[in-house]
Write a structure and sequence with these properties.
By secondary structure, the protein is an alpha+beta fold. Helix content is 16%, strand content 9%. The protein has two helices and four strands; from the N terminus they run H-E-E-E-E-H. It has helices spanning 18-21, 70-79; strands at 24-25, 38-39, 43-44, 55-56. The N and C termini lie close together (12 Å).
Length: 86
């Protein structure tokens, strides 16, 4: 998606739709359950509607204190980019 996030309470704007955020079932360890915007049990600061802990969107940002998945660590090693970089 790219660009500046203009949705959610921190940005002072309304939430974006699931379509705009490209919300989908997660296929790896990056999922809403470890995202800093997830509001258990089923909401998000940035994305509108019911949000599953097993989903993910293009607005995903890993919460502090959660370990990145093994593929992210490998990718970081190969590219020199931190697995926690956004």
């Amino acid at each position: 998606m790219g660009g500046v996030i203009t949705a959610g309470p921190g940005a002072g704007g309304p939430k974006v739709s699931q379509d705009v955020a490209n919300y989908r079932p997660a296929t790896g360890n990056d999922s809403c359950s470890v995202c800093k915007h997830f509001l258990p049990p089923d909401a998000c600061e940035l994305v509108d509607g019911m949000i599953s802990p097993g989903g993910v969107s293009d607005l995903f940002e890993r919460a502090a204190g959660t370990a990145p998945d093994a593929q992210s660590v490998l990718d970081a090693f190969m590219t020199g980019v931190s697995p926690n970089a956004t």
